[in-house]
Amino acid sequence: MDKSYFEKYIKERYQKEIERYVRKTIYNKKIYEILQITIIVSTIITPIMIVLELIVKHDLAYISLAFSSFVNGNIKY
């Protein structure tokens, strides 16, 4: 492999793959952070919903059950 072919390979193929890898890394990190925030918010809301259901005796039991199932990972999506 001569030097000019190697440099052409680096510019046309390798560099593009590195740039794609960086873009995908940034995208995946944002998705991860969004999912973590969703889990934290759901974890905070679940006990509040359960307490409200006990105090008010309303039909919030189904909502609190859905939240707790989501937080625990029992619902497969």
Shape: rod-shaped
Total helices: the number is 2
- Number of DSSP-assigned strands: 0
Low-confidence regions: none
Helix content: over 70%
- Structural class estimated from helices and strands: mainly alpha
Mean pLDDT equals 79
**Total of domains:** 1
Bin the strand percentage. Answer: under 5%
Order of helices and strands: HH
Report the radius of gyration as a whole number of Å.
Answer: 24 Å
Assembly classification: single chain
* Major beta sheet summary: none
- Give the N-to-C terminal Cα separation: 49 Å
Tell me briefly what this model is.
The chain has 77 residues and is mainly α. It has two helices and no strands.
What characteristics describe this protein?
77 residues, mainly alpha
Would you write up a description of this structure?
There is one protein chain. The protein has one domain (3-72). Helices cover 86% and strands 0% of the residues. It is mainly α and 77 residues long. The relative contact order is 0.07. Helix 1 (3-56) runs antiparallel to helix 2. The chain is built from 2 helices and no strands.
